[in-house]
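Review form for a predicted model. The reviewer records the input and the model, then writes brief findings.
Reviewer: anonymous (R2)
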Amino acid sequence: MNTIQRLENVLREDLQRVILLALSRERFFVKNVFYGGTALRLLYGLRRSSEDLDFVCLEGKEAFSWESFVPAVRKSAAAFGFSVSGIELKPGQSTPKMLVSVMLRESLSNRRSLYSLGQATLDAVHAHQKVMVRLETDLDDPSHPEPVTEQILLPAPFLVSTFQKPDLFAGKMHAVLFRSWGSRVKGRDWFDMLWYLGQEIPLRIEYLERKMKQSGKLEERASLTQDLFRECYVEVCRRVNFRKAFDDVEPFLEEEDVELIRDAFTEEMMLRLVDRFRFG
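Model under review:
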C-alpha cells in the first residue's frame, strides 16, 4: 500500500466517524442499526480499513429516505474540515444508498494538523482525486435480532445501535457462505471471520438459520445443525480461490499484517478452522 492509499484510508475512516456522529445527532440510531466491517473497525478495533457504512432499518421501513439526513451530513463534514464534492442519493426498494464524496487534497489540507504523513506527495496530480463513503440501509431483514448500544469517542462521544457480536458473526458467516460476486471473492469477509474466531466469539446459529431461510438457502422446515453448518463451510472452502480473496483484502490491511494474512489465506489453513467455531 502506497502513501496515498494510506492517506485515503485514514481520511475515509475519519469521514465515516463524522458521518456517524451526524446521524447520531439526528436520532438515526433510534430506528436503524450499524453493522458490517466498518462497525467492527470503529467499535471493536478490527485491523483493516473499510469502505462502506452498512445499516439495518428496524422501524419505519416504508417511509425511509436518506434525503432528510443530507443537510446534517453535509454540515458535519464541512465543520470538521472535509471538502464535500457531492452527496448522491440512490433510492432502492430494499437497499437505498447515499454516497458522500470529498476532495482528497483539499480535505487533507484543511485537516493538515491531523495528518503529517506524505503531505509532500499530494501534488497537482491529486487535485481532482476524491474519497467516497457509501451508506447503505437494508430494508428487507425481518429476522434481525435485538440491538445493543455502543459508544464511539471520536471526533466527539456519541452512541450508535448495533447487534451483539454473536449475531454480527452470524450475519458475517451468511456473507462468507453465500455472498454472490460472480467469479470474485470478497476476502474482507474471510478476514472478518478470522477476527471473530480469534476473539473466540460464539456464532449465533439460530440467527444464521433465519438468515438462510430468508435468503432461500435453507428450506423453511429444515434446521441448521452444527454439523450442517460445518458441511457448508467445508464445501465453500473447497471452491474459493483464496489467492483472489487475499488480493481483495490486501489494500485494507495494516502494513505489518500483510504477510501474516497472506499465509492464512489458503484452502488448507481455512479448512483447519472448521472445528474452531463455537456456537451460542
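Findings: The first strand starts at residue 32 and ends at 35.
Further findings: The chain has eleven helices and seven strands.
Recommendation: see findings above.
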